[in-house]
Specification:
It is a single chain. The protein is α/β, with parallel strands linked by helices and 311 residues long. The protein has 2 domains: 240 residues, TIM Barrel, CATH 3.20.20.70; 55 residues, Alpha-Beta Plaits (2-Layer Sandwich). The strands form 2 sheets. The chain has a 9-stranded mixed β-sheet. Helix 4 runs parallel beside helix 5. The longest helix has 13 residues.
Length: 311
């Protein structure tokens, strides 16, 4: 009999991915994050708990869901259709929605459930030199399960990649997570501590400290570390911030990094989970960055001797 583990909420497991590391990958998106970045492109991953999402574009106005809500939490008069103070997350409305406009966000799974999904892509890993990517949210919030998953993957010779915001307990990470990782995508978003507090909900002291320790620990190993910075108009995508990041990376002898081009499609995701978006009417946030602006910021890294990393 297989050993069972505690169950957690997984946002999504995406197979055949070409965007989250080398080769063809299975991406496990964990729910929950210690940061609260105002631009989060996966706002539904911030909380550890399951949620109900409502997509107005998919709704066919059949009103079947209304008769299945015992708490009368659904109404077209509600700003986001669902009164989340009344909703008890029974999911009857989701199960009876014919169009899929209502959906459950977060699936309860244990380690064996997750491994079964990962193993479906084993043939693709071998032919493409791919593997599994643990993303989120922040995977290290569920560090015990993450450790067990990493050990299991390495026992099957699966390449492992961790996407992290860097906000974790270093001692546990060093002893229990790092030994089983082949590659790390590490977010360095904002160098100014006060600005990081304002836009990410916490200052960056722990993140930068962990990065420095990580750089020292992976010397003489085969672990590939790639710092990444999301380009957010007027927040991270400023000349001052990118210069400060380039200087910091130079101090730690980083030769490759990635600037993630801005994607405005995240804005409507907040509405689906019942959150008002303060940037919905911000003209800079609602459009794509020009290639000229992206190139200007990329040039700062190039001048600093930091090559552009391409997956």
């Amino acid at each position: 009999m297989k050993e069972k583990h505690n169950k957690i909420n997984i946002l999504e497991i995406k197979g055949n991915s070409l965007d989250d590391g080398p080769g063809i990958r299975t991406v496990v998106f964990f729910k929950g994050c210690p940061l609260s970045c105002v631009w989060c492109h996966n706002p539904e991953s911030k909380t550890l708990n399951s949620q109900i999402a409502f997509d107005a574009k998919e709704c066919i106005a059949c009103d079947i869901c209304l008769s299945h809500c015992s708490q009368n939490a659904l109404s077209r008069k509600n700003p986001f259709y669902i009164d989340r103070e009344k909703c008890t997350l029974c999911y009857d409305c989701v199960e009876n929605c014919p169009s899929g406009a209502l959906s459950r966000v977060g699936k309860t799974m244990d380690m064996n459930d997750i491994l079964l999904e990962i193993e479906k892509d084993l043939p693709f890993f071998k032919t493409s030199k791919g593997g599994v990517t643990f993303s989120g949210g922040e995977p290290t919030l569920n560090s015990d399960l993450l450790k067990d998953l990493l050990i299991a993957c390495k026992s099957k010779n699966i390449h492992t990649l961790l996407e992290t915001c860097g906000y974790f307990n270093w001692d546990y990470f060093q002893d229990n997570i790092l030994p089983y990782i082949d590659m790390i995508y590490y977010d360095i978003k904002i160098m100014d501590a006060k600005a990081h507090q304002t836009f990410c909900g916490k200052d960056n002291q722990l993140i930068l400290s962990n990065f420095e320790k990580l750089c020292g620990s992976i010397q003489n190993t085969n672990i590939h570390l790639i710092p990444r910075t999301p380009l957010i108009p007027n927040i991270t995508a400023t000349i001052e911030n990118i210069r400060a990041i380039a200087y910091f990376l130079n101090q730690h002898h980083i030769s490759q990094a990635q600037l993630l081009e801005y994607n405005p499609l995240w804005l409507e995701k907040n509405n689906k989970i019942g959150i008002s978006n303060p940037y919905a009417n911000n003209s800079e946030m609602t459009k794509w960055m020009t290639q000229q602006s992206v190139n200007q910021l990329q040039e700062i890294f190039q001048i600093a001797g930091i090559e552009k990393y391409d997956t």
